[in-house]
Automatic annotation (TrEMBL):
InterPro entries in the cross-refs: Peptidase_S8/S53_dom, Peptidase_S8/S53_dom_sf, Peptidase_S8_subtilisin-rel, Peptidases_S8_3, S8pro/Inhibitor_I9, S8pro/Inhibitor_I9_sf, SBT
Organism: Trapa incisa
GO MF terms held by the record: serine-type endopeptidase activity
UniProt KW keywords: Glycoprotein, Hydrolase, Protease, Serine protease, Signal
Domain of life per record: Eukaryota
Signal peptide: 1-27
Official protein name in the record: Uncharacterized protein
Amino acid sequence: MRVPKTILSLLFFCLIFKFQSCTTANADDKTSVHIVYLGKKKHDDPELITSSHHDMLASVLERKESAVEKLVYSYRHGFSGFAAKLTESEARKLAELPGVIQVMRNRIYRIQTTRSWDFLGLPSPPINNLLHRSVMGDGVIIGVFDTGIWPESKSFTDEGLGPVPSNWNGACESGEQFDPVKHCNRKIIGARWYIKGILAEYGKLLNSSGETEFLSPRDAIGHGTHTASTAAGSFVNNVSYRGVAYGTARGGAPRARLAVYKVCWNVLGGQCSSVDILKAIDQAIHDRVHVMSLSIGSSIPLFSEVDDRDGIATGSFHAVTHGITVVCGAANDGPSAQTVQNTAPWILTVAASTIDREFHTFITLGTNEVYVGQALYTGQEVGFASLVYPEGPVLAPTSAGVCQDLSPNATLFAGKLVLCFTSSRRAAITIAAAAVKASGGLGLIAAKVPSDGLAPCSDDFPCVEVDYEIGTRILYYIRSERSPVVKISPTQTVATSKLPAHVAVFSSRGPNSIAPAILKVT
């Protein structure tokens, strides 16, 4: 018996429809963390607010017990909302409920990376400047939202500080290698940590992934310790980097108190979840901080100035309505235009700038010509030694003298100092320095586009950066001499008012990518 073609066609389309339905259902069954934002809180009782969140979540689920299981955070102090594990269908249902302003997916942010305050006109002496008139920030509580803190640093001593401010409502939480009794004091008066959002994205404990991390307020990366000490580090005298940049290290408000909120973790260089950031901001409002500091940003494409999907902008808005000043980094994606971040009108957005200090490293040629490069070389003087520029028949024409194309070559580099050129960023210089050092070379002179950062090189290996003009002059010397030689001297710190400040090369630039015609007044 033959089956009519029309019936076969119907069966085929039914099977296709059933397959698509199953595929859609399976995709819709997958849960991810969403933020349900409800705006200004309607009650002052935190428990009542949390209960209302459970009820709202339960209204789109099969049972109320599921609401308790799926709730990640309840935002109940500075504003109202909650984070929960939802399917796309459940998220759509919640978005349609009365009182729900916005439902947004969890988003991953990333962290952004002593003499600055003297340069800004806030030196320790004299006693009549702004720093002293503000009592060095005494009584001010700065909330730092970052990778945590390393409490043993001398920057966080509480020597000379009075009692903890009476209006403080926060706490220190315990965790791996962090004891509140031992590690909190009159300087670090609060320390909390938030990880549920990151765990929801990555699904495992971070310290089991092979990366160094602490499930506590302790800092495993160093970024949070750096930003906290920059804002409010205590005076630490007689410090230097192996004798370079000698002086006193301190923060902008050395007598201010610190409340640490660890929201960023050692995942892919430092990542932070928006649901964790929002929970920390909500808690910090309740803890009564006076200032919030966030060196955190998103990835391109960027949010607009006011975007209801931007957790930092949303949380900081409610912080400002409670009288808290919110300071955020502009990001480190420069020098390209339209890369500035955290541009909401209520946020004080801070760029990076140069200061009046340089690290001079003198390069002396065999003709006694002296050029000034930049480095952090703290070893012994090198030279006079042979100076070479990698070129000739053994190298491809396009690779001659190119820093990033250098590879270990004992014949060319052993016992010599090497000159190379690059148009790339610092990574090219690091690669070249490693190749020369591995070949028994004595040092590297890298000619590059002027910038405000130095490539990370070994402390005992001279890795001196110069501009193209100086690099070309050195190259001319090499080609005009039969046996060119050079001497590299240890780095010297030079501070002078003749160095004008400008926005650092790496600092993100405006205008805002969404509304470039609008300038931000802050």
